[in-house]
Specification:
This protein is of the alpha/beta class. The protein has one domain: P-loop containing nucleotide triphosphate hydrolases (Rossmann fold, 3-Layer(aba) Sandwich). The protein is built from 7 helices and 11 strands. The strands form 3 sheets. The chain has a 6-stranded mixed beta sheet with strand order 7-8-9-5-10-11. A 3-stranded antiparallel beta sheet has the order 4-3-6, covered by helices on one side. Strands 1-2 form a two-stranded antiparallel sheet. The N and C termini lie far apart (46 Å). The structure holds adenosine-5'-triphosphate and magnesium ion. The site of magnesium ion has 4 residues, from helix 1.
Length: 256
């Protein structure tokens, strides 16, 4: 169901795209909650959720974009993921989110998989997602609607104000500049955390930001009380993380 009447529940879930992946749009869920009302909390996310990956292989058709990745991230740890273009970083993050379907091996978030519908629903609440290429959507989603879809519109809106995009929230996402849109997604992630997400998966969240914005975003993301896995080529962001991993040709190695 899709409707753009304020207060009406909108759920775009479980849609599959041509490659067989769950579409990123499935993460847009608007509800009749008022700002400040908190969505159902992930019960054990306080301070972050642990990640455990075992022999994870992700394919795009015949291409193995991620090959045999093992990774443990402790609850609350902040991990920067770097690596060359096309090395599999985005694919790996989307697999952790449960959006990429062609996956072998084991991916646990907070000790839970994502194979059943119930597990996947839990995974979506447990993980906040800042996409590398934010999609404006197939319908004219407004910025405040994206913020409300976090589950805690009040916190997301406050974060949007802190990030300098509070005045833009009545605009369609498609009308925002790249940096403005990235700030709105950062603010949405804050709302997701306020609503109970225990992991933030951020894919180059500062790539479109100016210098001041990069600093602000790095401080904001690394200050959240969650487990953070952030793809970044930004040294300031990496320096604020506890660990730095590098991906090359689908394989991970620890570099700092
Ligand atoms: N939908 C897709 N269909 C086919 N191949 C894909 C698809 N998405 C990604 N790939 C391929 O999978 C590999 C890994 O892509 P991915 O986007 O994960 O890389 P990345 O490390 O995030 O790169 P970048 O730093 O450029 O964002 C690349 O060779 C890419 O061309
Ligand atoms: Mg990428």
């Amino acid at each position: 169901m899709v409707a753009l009447v304020p207060g009406v529940r909108i759920r775009v879930a479980g849609r599959w795209n041509r490659t067989g992946d769950r579409s990123d749009y499935c993460r847009v869920e608007l509800s009749s909650k008022q700002p400040g009302q908190v969505a159902t909390r992930s019960p054990d996310s306080e301070g972050g959720l642990a990640l455990r990956l075992r022999d994870v292989v992700c394919r795009h058709g015949r291409l193995a974009a991620v090959g045999g990745v093992d990774l443990d991230v402790a609850a609350g740890q902040r991990v920067a993921l770097t690596g060359t273009n096309g090395s599999g970083k985005t694919t790996l993050l989307r697999a952790v989110l449960g959006l990429h379907r062609q996956v072998d091996g084991e991916i646990l978030v907070g000790g839970r998989g994502s194979r059943s519908a119930a597990e996947w629903a839990w995974r979506r609440r447990a993980c906040a997602w800042i996409p590398q290429r934010p999609a404006a959507g197939r319908f004219p989603l407004l910025a405040h609607e994206l913020l409300r879809s976090s589950g805690d519109g009040g916190q997301a809106l406050s974060a949007a104000e802190r990030l300098g995009v509070g005045a833009l929230v009545d605009r369609p996402l498609s009308s925002l500049s790249g940096g403005q849109l990235q700030r709105v997604h950062l603010a949405r992630a804050v709302g997701c955390v306020a609503a109970g997400a225990g992991v933030v998966l951020a894919d180059e969240p500062t790539a479109a930001l100016d210098f001041a914005g990069q600093e602000e975003a790095a401080e904001l993301l690394t200050g959240l009380p969650v487990t953070l896995l952030v793809v970044t080529h930004d040294r300031a962001m990496a320096a604020r993380c506890d660990r730095v991993l590098e991906m090359a040709a689908g394989r991970l190695r620890e570099v700092g």
